[in-house]
């Protein structure tokens, strides 16, 4: 596709369940980011992948959060034993190199609601 | 050193007016200063960006002004239109070469 694709667009689940969020970056983009955006707030960095390098996981809020990127393309963000405070929009972005001079291209996010 | 302060939190401007959003930062190592625009239900998109070797950059109705000594940069939207109604984020670069430090956002409403 032409842009970053995220699925599902909306996810409602019960507290304590595990969820998986998917991101398809722009073809050829080596850098991939996950962010969390709470209602009316700014973006909170979660994790960064660049090529085959070890990811920067410094933004993950707890060990319930994990992410992987297979084959340098598709990425999955997993939240285990979800809590109500996990409710937010999860945004994925990709860029051609990861250098700050390269714009980050965002998907439209997954809106996660924990009941 | 990583803090970014964006103001105002919200702004209402009449159609045709000038919208001004400000971003103050602390980290003198920042050397990339972008503004992102986000519409409801969409992800942010890069609007305009500046490097510190220039004090101003203009693209159409959008201008970034940069004041290195004051550690501030601002977004000016000339002849503001209802279609400019969105949330705007400043996101200067951190000391790493890939991580942007995001402001809290400014919700801009242009009244027709």
Helix content of chain A: under 10%
* Strand fraction of chain B: over 45%
Taking strands numbered 1, 2, ... along the chain, how are they ordered across the largest sheet of chain B?
1-3-8-7-6
Overall pLDDT level of chain B: 93
Overall 3D form of chain B: globular
Mean pLDDT of chain A: 93
The span between the termini of chain B is 40 Å
Indicate the radius of gyration of chain A in whole angstroms: 13 Å
Number of strands of chain A: 10
Q: If helices are DSSP runs of H or I spanning 4 or more residues, what is the number of helices of chain A?
A: 0
What keyword list fits this structure?
heterodimer, A: 115 residues, mainly beta, six-stranded mixed beta sheet, four-stranded antiparallel beta sheet, 10 strands, globular, B: 112 residues, five-stranded antiparallel beta sheet, five-stranded mixed beta sheet
Secondary structure elements and their pairing?
The complex is a heterodimer of chains A (115) and B (112).
Chain A: E1 5-7, E2 10-13, E3 19-24, E4 31-37, E5 43-50, E6 65-69, E7 75-79, E8 88-95, E9 105-106, E10 110-114
Parallel strand pairs in A: 2-10
Antiparallel strand pairs in A: 1-3, 3-7, 4-5, 4-8, 6-7, 8-9, 8-10
Chain B: E1 4-7, E2 10-14, E3 19-25, E4 33-38, E5 45-50, E6 56-59, E7 62-67, E8 72-77, E9 86-90, E10 106-111
Question: What does the model show?
Answer:
The complex is a heterodimer of chains A (115) and B (112). In chain A, 0% of the residues lie in helices and 46% in strands. Chain A has 115 residues and is mostly beta strands. In chain A, the strands form 2 sheets. In chain A, strands 2, 4, 5, 8, 9 and 10 form a 6-stranded mixed sheet that branches. In chain A, strand 4 (31-37) and strand 5 form a beta hairpin. The mean pLDDT of chain A is 93. Chain B is mostly beta strands. Chain B has no helices and 10 strands. Chain B has strands at residues 4-7, 10-14, 19-25, 33-38, 45-50, 56-59, 62-67, 72-77, 86-90, 106-111. The relative contact order of chain B is 0.33. The mean pLDDT of chain B is 93. The chains are: A mainly beta (115), B mainly beta (112). Chains A and B meet through strand 5 and strand 9 of A and strand 5 of B.
